Amino acid sequence: MGSRVRNQFRNNPLNSKFSFENLLVSLADIKSCDKILDPTFGFSELIFKILLNNKEQKITAEFIDERFVAMGYIAALGLGATHTKLYTGEVLDEPMYVQDGKLEQFDKVITMPPIGQKLEYTDNVLDDKYNRFPFGIPSRKSGDWAFVSNAIAALNHNLGSKAVVVVRDGALFRGGMDSNIRQKMVDYDLIESIISLPVGAVEDAAISVSIIILTMNKPEKMRGKIQFINIDREMLSTKSLRSIEFTDEEIEQITKWYHDKKDVEGISKIVSNDHIKDTQLQVKRYVYSTLYRVNGRDVQFHSENLKDMKKVPLSEVVDITRGFNLTAKDETTDGMYQIIKITDIKDKINYHDLTYFNLSGNADVNRYLVQKNDIIMAIRGNINKIKWIDETVYNVAINSNLVRLRLKNDKYDPLWLRLYLNSPLVQILLGKSSVGSTITQIPIRDLEKLPVPVLCINAQRKMASDFMEKNDEINKAMNKLELERQEIGKKLYDEMNITGAIELL
């Protein structure tokens, strides 16, 4: 807990080169008269970065570890701090910054809480006497929104007051109670900006994080809107894959984008609260470049033209069923069923090499079996893998990283649909919908909404047939050219008189 800062105390106190805190401080727009709170100060060096700028800054901070708080107090004294108050306590259970039975209010709350940590809520949280969780008790799986709610509760209503909170990207799209809390924060217009950062922003953490900036008093031009900013690794000078060291120039530029509140292609986008989709707040849903690289070629994406396309959602065309969550105990060499995994999806599926299994429990295996003319596609990991089942198969299921698309009627041709799902348009749309910082996933609800062109079945069959026929001709021509390449190479090596030493296989 707080190991990164502990190491700094131990090795080189108050002189670290970590730049993430500098970015947070820059975004907070701290004034010398501001009262500042960091309710989880043991997980960063934020308060010390602030004190280095102004030793007289009014700072209140809390952390659960008594020994660490004592070390922090000594460090603050070493910096000449005159208005710093450090408390020992677990802030969600018992905030210590209380006056006359009420939470003390601050101009700025800046905090990097434990990222994605599972929580065990006490009665003090479930029945909070300070009304810090008016939008609901956050999920126990991850405490991101508990710390966000706690930060908002400590903000005053002064113009310019704000909370700057670091969260794991998953907090921006998880369902359940987290989704309800996000929606209410959008409805109450508390979220000003969300800044997405690449893996390595938090040192030695193999996850991507985002910075949420919230305020009780938005600037006039941002009321009813949220700014999304996307910072990709390619935009930064850092070379390390494990940790990012933001330069002063990069911090200044990110802060400028935040202050400018302008649309910048591929970087910044202002989105009306009414256009927030399904409480999904991940930045890449709203900020993206119009130029993509798909299947080895550059593609210009004109999203506005999608509105004019006659289309229906994919859910009207097919039934979408997720595969079976196979466990090792179900696998057996003499099993009754076989299962297709992502790695099995190739130009031709080798059914003889598939894993065999028997079904345990009361699960209905028919729900997961595939049949001729089904389309299977990956929704986790390598999301570009799609396969049309063009032959009759028996007792073959799909695993949980795949979905089965089964046509609802004869209005669509399965081969045409598979070709469409492999198109650059679909690959771009699925890429925009994907979530997850380490393993990419496509939410089923987004797959259901995927637009499918409305065309007559005869036109579909003709264009699919024409494409496959021409594609076969091209493949044959390419194979012939490859054989010719090998022949002229053999002739060259014969003339070099080296084929006695090598044998071309």
TrEMBL record:
What keywords are annotated for this sequence in UniProt? Coiled coil, DNA-binding, Methyltransferase, Restriction system, S-adenosyl-L-methionine, Transferase
State the CDD domains in the record: RMtype1_S_TRD-CR_like
Name the Enzyme Commission number(s) assigned to this protein. Answer: 2.1.1.72
Q: What PANTHER family does UniProt report for this protein, alphabetically? A: SLR6095 PROTEIN, TYPE I RESTRICTION ENZYME MJAVIII METHYLASE SUBUNIT
Superkingdom as given in the UniProt entry: Bacteria
- What is this enzyme's catalytic activity, as reactions? a 2'-deoxyadenosine in DNA + S-adenosyl-L-methionine = an N(6)-methyl-2'-deoxyadenosine in DNA + S-adenosyl-L-homocysteine + H(+)
Top-level enzyme category = transferase
Pfam families assigned to the protein according to its UniProt record, in alphabetical order: Methylase_S, N6_Mtase
Tell me the protein's name: site-specific DNA-methyltransferase (adenine-specific)
Q: Does the keyword Ribosomal protein apply?
A: no
The family annotation for this protein states: Belongs to the type-I restriction system S methylase family.
Residue ranges occupied by any Type I restriction modification DNA specificity domain in the UniProt entry: 307-476
Could you tell me which residue ranges the DNA methylase adenine-specific domain spans? 83-288
Q: What is the source species? A: Companilactobacillus huachuanensis
Which Gene Ontology molecular function entries are recorded, alphabetically? Answer: methyltransferase activity
Species classification = Bacteria, Bacillati, Bacillota, Bacilli, Lactobacillales
Task: Give any single GO term for biological process.
Answer: methylation
From which residue to which does any coiled coil extend?
464-491
